[in-house]
Amino acid sequence: MCDEIDRFDLGITLLCYGYDTKKISHIFEVSNPGKVTDHDLLSYAVIGSGWYMATASLQRKTLPPDLEMTIYRLLEAKFSAETAPGVGKSTSLLTMNSDGKDGSIGSGSIEKIRAVWERVLKEPEPKDAIDLISKTEAVRRIVDGEQ
Prior knowledge:
Helix content: 40-55%
Distance between the termini: 75 Å
Largest sheet: 3 strands, antiparallel
Structural class: alpha+beta
Low-confidence stretches: none
Oligomer: single chain
Number of strands: 5
Radius of gyration: 21 Å
Number of helices: 6
Order of helices and strands: HEEEHHEEHHH
């Protein structure tokens, strides 16, 4: 019976976070069959079919030390992950401090944040960068037919 239980696959992976008795934060992943992966060194973790997109979003720039900006970046990563098969738009966000006090962001607020993120995605590329690129050989030789 114990062998059967050990081999049983729930078909889920859990991403867990919390604090130890010294109030030091920890983040870890639990996957089948009870395998634990520590993610403390990176200070974040990504799981699921959208992990490539979420990881790319998080690594795009340094995570800020500010809670509000970090929450935005995490939501941004989740929204990016939604381009992967099997990742739905339903999103929950929970927070907890080292004293165990918790909080959450409701779905209405998350949808408003998603609308801001979608608007930012539609902004054009920076004109000064485009101007610099247009002056490079990579563009001039192709567009102007330079030899």
